[in-house]
Design a protein that fits this description.
The chain has about 250 residues and is mostly helical. It is built from 9 helices and 2 strands. Strands 1-2 form a two-stranded antiparallel ribbon. It is globular and about 55 Å long.
């Protein structure tokens, strides 16, 4: 199969996202947890750009769509699981291994079902929480706790109330990934996209803004996972009502 330049450009972003996800795993293995989390976010940006470029350049391919699934599994299924295990869960023995495995298995099932039941590849919304939401939640929280800008003893992922909140929320997100809850495709409206992009850039600074940006992204992930479906359901009901044809009685 010979690719045109219209197809090569977006696919190069897909390949870059895969390499960055793999590099995140290497950083986790080396104990560089902040860098590993940052690389997950970089892969997320590249993963978002490849599809946008493919549609803009009219260079979509079946191969590119399949590659995108493998990127999702690598960068947003395996990389967060390895980060979580290396940074925290390995100290909890079998329970830690089981939770890390659940992160992987939830992602595998979610992406396999996505390939089967969604011919629109997420362009008309998602069945189940997108895998990028949990990956972004975990990566952002790791950046906030590991960047060294918040030094309180209670702000930790291995003990205390914050740890309980993080891991319980992560577990519920993993359940939502394989649920039948419907989610809208995240908007590309500049009012939302520009501030979101600024927050992503701030994650790579060494100021207090990095921790603040990370916590803000965590809050967005929490809202999207647990609150957004109620608004989206109301939207779907309203759209269905508009499409109903009134019955005329004689």
């Amino acid at each position: 199969m010979i690719l045109s330049w219209r197809q090569t450009i977006p696919m190069s972003f897909t390949m870059a996202a895969m390499v960055v996800g793999f590099y995140s795993m290497l950083m986790s293995a080396a104990g560089e947890y902040v860098q590993a989390a940052q690389l997950i976010m970089v892969s997320m940006i590249l993963d978002g750009l490849d599809g946008t470029l493919a549609r803009a350049l009219k260079g979509t391919t079946q191969v590119g769509a399949e590659l995108d699934t493998f990127v999702d599994m690598t960068s947003f299924g395996l990389a967060p699981a390895i980060l979580a295990y290396q940074a925290v869960l390995k100290d909890f023995g079998a329970w830690g291994f089981m939770l890390a495995s659940v992160i992987v298995l939830s992602g595998v099932y979610r992406l396999s079902r996505f390939r089967v039941v969604d011919p629109y590849r997420g362009q008309r919304g998602y069945l189940g929480l997108p895998i990028t939401t949990n990956a972004g939640w975990m990566a952002s929280f790791f950046i906030a706790t590991e960047c060294g800008r918040i030094e309180q003893e209670w702000f930790s992922l291995d003990h205390g109330a914050v740890a309980a909140l993080f891991w319980s929320t992560t577990l519920v997100m993993l359940i939502l990934q394989v649920s039948h809850v419907r989610y809208a495709k995240p908007t590309k409206n500049p009012i939302v996209f520009i501030p979101f992009s600024i927050l992503m850039i701030l994650l790579f600074t060494k100021s207090d803004l990095a921790a603040a940006a990370a916590l803000t992204l965590c809050a967005y992930g929490f809202w999207y996972a647990f609150i957004h479906p109620f608004f989206y359901r109301q939207h779907l009901l309203m759209e269905a009502e508009k499409e109903e044809v009134p019955v005329r009685h004689p």
